[in-house]
Amino acid sequence: MSVPTPDRPFYRAHVFVCTNVRPPGHKRGCCAEKGAERLRNYMKVRARELGLADTRINLAGCLDRCELGPCLVVYPDGIWYRYGNEADIDEILERHLVEGAPVERLMLHPDQMPPDA
Ligand code: FES
């Protein structure tokens, strides 16, 4: 049985931004304590201003790379980023999502582990 495939996806890209919250002092930390919710909201506004109507900026729960966060992942590309401020978010939006060129300096690689792992 074959599954019908659409001519094009409903969204060209999804960005999943971890905004998970953990109690203060948790050994893994969390993205929320590093400003993730504020920066996700900023990203959503900036994506709209850039006219990225085909890109969805989603809240996400823990993506299990807590120690490396705050982090987000862009699908369908499967590219992960660690960001720290509005300038990083702007660069991800403008370079990756508008121009199609991933931002190497902010990328988390598949084999990248926390420093003490
Ligand atoms: S708390 Fe964000 S990846 Fe786990």
TL;DR of this structure?
The protein has helices at residues 36-49, 86-98; strands at 13-18, 55-60, 71-75, 79-82, 107-108.
List its traits.
single chain, 117 residues, alpha+beta, 23% helix, 2 helices, globular, binds FE2/S2 (inorganic) cluster, 5 strands, 20% strand, five-stranded mixed sheet
Describe the structure.
The chain starts with 12 loop residues before the first strand and ends in a 9-residue tail after the last strand. The chain is built from 2 helices and 5 strands, in the order βαβββαβ. The chain has a 5-stranded mixed sheet with strand order 2-1-3-4-5, with helices on one face. The model has no long low-confidence stretch (mean pLDDT 95). Helix 1 (36-49) links the parallel strand 1 (13-18) and strand 2 (55-60). Helix 1 crosses helix 2. The chain has helices spanning 36-49, 86-98, and strands spanning 13-18, 55-60, 71-75, 79-82, 107-108. Helix content is 23%, strand content 20%.
Query: How far is the N terminus from the C terminus?
Result: 44 Å
What percent of residues adopt helix (DSSP H or I)?
Answer: 10-25%
**Radius of gyration from the alpha-carbon trace, in angstroms:** 15 Å
Q: Helix count? A: 2
Low-confidence stretches: none
Largest sheet composition: 5 strands, mixed
- Small-molecule binders: FE2/S2 (inorganic) cluster
What series of H and E elements makes up the topology?
EHEEEHE
Look at the helices and sheets and give the structural class: alpha+beta
Taken from the alpha-carbon principal axes, the silhouette is globular
The largest sheet has its strands arranged as 2-1-3-4-5
Q: Give the number of DSSP strands.
A: 5
Mean pLDDT score: 95
Tell me what portion of residues adopts beta-strand conformation. Answer: 15-25%
